[in-house]
């Protein structure tokens, strides 16, 4: 490995960490957040929900299994969660320039350079994470000495408009027609629907899909503040009146809640990990889930005909909602995982079952 450039991570409170560059040598700014997953960095880095964010990995060794091939299947990348790297920057403790994996074709550093994303190693990520837990997610900047940059708050922008598709696309040829509202969708959501005999009609975040022919509606994950997505919420409100089955994930949970009349709020440092325990409301069933979000639903603001479906065991925040009588539900976590535990993938089956029941009852 050639001599690495020195580079700094500067937080908005003035805290400075000195490290070395292993990605693209460019100064950038964004929101600094941490995630605790031990594996799955190709999936995490291509997750559109990280748009505008500088990602800190708490697991010390990153890069040892490289980056997989970019082959396609069903018109989407087989091993990535989107077509590009979405993070603004990556902060790790120790970088492995040597990699070994049967499916790897390049190093993590080379991949970051391709997408012009800076990466820093040699930073005390334990100390950094403690600051973020105590003070909350903070604005920060990766700064090379010769290239100063100003702080930037991505939450002031409509990040969904950046992450969403700009045209309607169709995947699969299944029996069930599902409109997928793309707010920054992960590819494994599309895979999970195709594998369950669905034709997926992917539409932009602000597209009025209520005039489409469909059997169910799927509300995707995505980045940023759900309050920015007023047009999406308006379209979901129209869909609720149609009463066809609806399922949402992550941002989709927040948007469904807002369409129902509930409120959302920003968490102190969010949930970004593969190990978040959630409890199915009214039962003793606990699931380990994959999560990536900085906002949450205020459960006390749910209307009387809605209820909490899942609850986070760590902090009692909302992890999903459902209508008491109609086929509408959503989760704050990721049942499709990628990467992460698949404990809750059965929820896709429940969504398809709701569609089958609806079609039989027409």
From TrEMBL:
GO terms for molecular function: ATP binding; carbamoyl-phosphate synthase (glutamine-hydrolyzing) activity. It catalyses: L-glutamine + H2O = L-glutamate + NH4(+); hydrogencarbonate + L-glutamine + 2 ATP + H2O = carbamoyl phosphate + L-glutamate + 2 ADP + phosphate + 2 H(+). Pathway: Pyrimidine metabolism; UMP biosynthesis via de novo pathway; (S)-dihydroorotate from bicarbonate: step 1/3; Amino-acid biosynthesis; L-arginine biosynthesis; carbamoyl phosphate from bicarbonate: step 1/1. Pfam families: CPSase_sm_chain, GATase. Coiled coil: none annotated. It is an enzyme of class 6 (ligase). L-glutamine binds at residues 49, 222, 224, 251, 254, 292, 294-295. Residues 5-143 form the Carbamoyl-phosphate synthase small subunit N-terminal domain. It comes from the Bacteria. Its EC number is 6.3.5.5. One of its GO terms (biological process) is glutamine metabolic process. The active site is at residues 250, 334, 336. Keywords: Amino-acid biosynthesis, Arginine biosynthesis, ATP-binding, Glutamine amidotransferase, Ligase, Nucleotide-binding, Pyrimidine biosynthesis. Belongs to the CarA family. PANTHER family: CARBAMOYL-PHOSPHATE SYNTHASE SMALL CHAIN, MULTIFUNCTIONAL TRYPTOPHAN BIOSYNTHESIS PROTEIN-RELATED. Composed of two chains; the small (or glutamine) chain promotes the hydrolysis of glutamine to ammonia, which is used by the large (or ammonia) chain to synthesize carbamoyl phosphate. Tetramer of heterodimers (alpha,beta)4. Small subunit of the glutamine-dependent carbamoyl phosphate synthetase (CPSase). CPSase catalyzes the formation of carbamoyl phosphate from the ammonia moiety of glutamine, carbonate, and phosphate donated by ATP, constituting the first step of 2 biosynthetic pathways, one leading to arginine and/or urea and the other to pyrimidine nucleotides. The small subunit (glutamine amidotransferase) binds and cleaves glutamine to supply the large subunit with the substrate ammonia. This is Carbamoyl phosphate synthase small chain. The lineage of its organism: Bacteria, Pseudomonadati, Bacteroidota, Bacteroidia, Marinilabiliales. The gene is carA.
């Amino acid at each position: 490995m050639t001599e690495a450039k020195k580079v700094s991570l500067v937080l908005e409170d003035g805290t400075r960490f000195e490290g070395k560059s292993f990605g693209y040598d460019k100064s950038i700014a964004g929101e600094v957040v941490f995630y605790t997953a031990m594996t799955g960095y190709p999936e995490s880095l291509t997750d559109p929900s990280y748009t505008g964010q500088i990602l800190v990995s708490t697991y010390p060794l990153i890069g040892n299994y490289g980056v997989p091939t970019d082959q396609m299947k069903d018109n989407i990348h087989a091993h990535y969660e989107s077509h590009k790297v979405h993070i603004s920057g990556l902060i790790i403790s120790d970088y492995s320039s040597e990699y070994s994996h049967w499916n790897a074709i390049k190093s993590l550093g080379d991949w970051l350079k391709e997408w012009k994303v800076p990466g820093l190693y040699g930073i005390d990520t334990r100390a950094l994470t403690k600051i973020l837990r105590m003070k909350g997610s903070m604005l920060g900047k990766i700064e090379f000495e010769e290239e100063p940059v100003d702080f930037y708050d991505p939450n002031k922008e409509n990040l969904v408009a950046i992450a969403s598709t700009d045209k309607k696309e169709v995947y699969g040829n299944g029996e069930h027609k599902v409109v997928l509202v793309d707010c920054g969708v992960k590819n494994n959501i599309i895979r999970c629907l195709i594998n369950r005999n669905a034709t997926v009609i992917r539409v932009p975040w602000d597209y009025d899909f209520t005039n489409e022919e469909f059997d169910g509606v799927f509300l995707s994950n995505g980045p940023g503040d759900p309050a920015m997505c007023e047009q999406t919420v308006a379209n979901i409100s129209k869909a609720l009146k149609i009463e066809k089955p609806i399922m949402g994930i992550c941002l989709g949970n927040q948007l469904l809640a807002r369409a129902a009349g509930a409120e959302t709020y920003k968490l102190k440092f969010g949930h970004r990990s593969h190990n978040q325990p959630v409890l199915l409301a009214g039962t003793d069933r606990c699931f380990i889930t994959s999560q990536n979000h900085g906002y949450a639903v205020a459960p006390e603001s749910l209307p009387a005909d809605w209820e909490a479906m899942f609850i986070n065991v760590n902090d009692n925040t909302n992890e999903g909602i459902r209508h008491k009588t109609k086929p509408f539900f959503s989760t704050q976590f990721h049942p499709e995982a990628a990467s992460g535990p698949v404990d809750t993938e059965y929820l896709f089956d429940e969504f398809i079952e709701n569609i089958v029941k609806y079609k039989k009852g027409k």
